[in-house]
Amino acid sequence: MDQAKMLRRLVEERQKNENGPKIIAITSGKGGVGKTNFTVNLAIAMAMCGKKILIIDADLGMANVDVILGTTPQYNLLNLLDDNLSLEEIMATGPHDIKYISGGSGLEKLANLNINELEYIIDKIDQCEYVADYIFIDTGAGLNKNVLNFIIAADEVILLTTPEPTAITDAYAIMKAYSYYSKQSLIGVVVNRIFEDNEEELVLSKLSKTAEKFLDLYVKKIGGIYEDRNLIKAVKAQQPVLMAYPNTIASRCIKDIAYNMINDVQLTRYGGLRGFLDKLRRILR
Question: Which pLDDT score is estimated for 118?
């Protein structure tokens, strides 16, 4: 084993032991850019690399992780209030043993819960500490209080956008709000639906220059995904593209992103699930 591989293993073990799972909020400035599709397929790609993944579908009013997976889970987030149901019963299982908690219609009711009910749900989610290496929070699209709560509390944020001018403008709005409320000075960006080879770099350059100049926020390149008709066919068939078309260009791009994320050596500590939930409690109060 060379020194780089040894360092990565030591860092991963230290993070796993000291910090628990890494919490990644995946968001977008507008709907329709492929956020949930990306979240599900990234989870599968990382699971294929041996990582344990949990998705929490927190897209208020538009929860559809189960639709992408072509499944109908029995329970959703609101069932966490049920004393007779364990966390294991509420979690559903997808391809490559990824776990997910469906948003379902329950998310619309979550907004009306009192603080004691929210605390109870948060305490129950705390048990997820032992079931995953990474927890993906699939947030809603756009700029609202619920989205901001999740991205501020997360260890890392991945912002999905496309080369369309409106998508870039909306992505910058998310970055602006994030820089104002969060103590983090870094945000990850994935450019989806790339047609030309230079589009990813152009989008990243535009966002990073503006963010550094006006927001003191630095953009981290996570990766790009090329436009792929097979991805559309997979969505219509209610299958993740990695399962339906594992060798197509979109699948290869997502696999590359997963590999790079897993092998990204970061010596800084992150809060893990306990830190995420503590920050979420403070925000909700």
Answer: 76
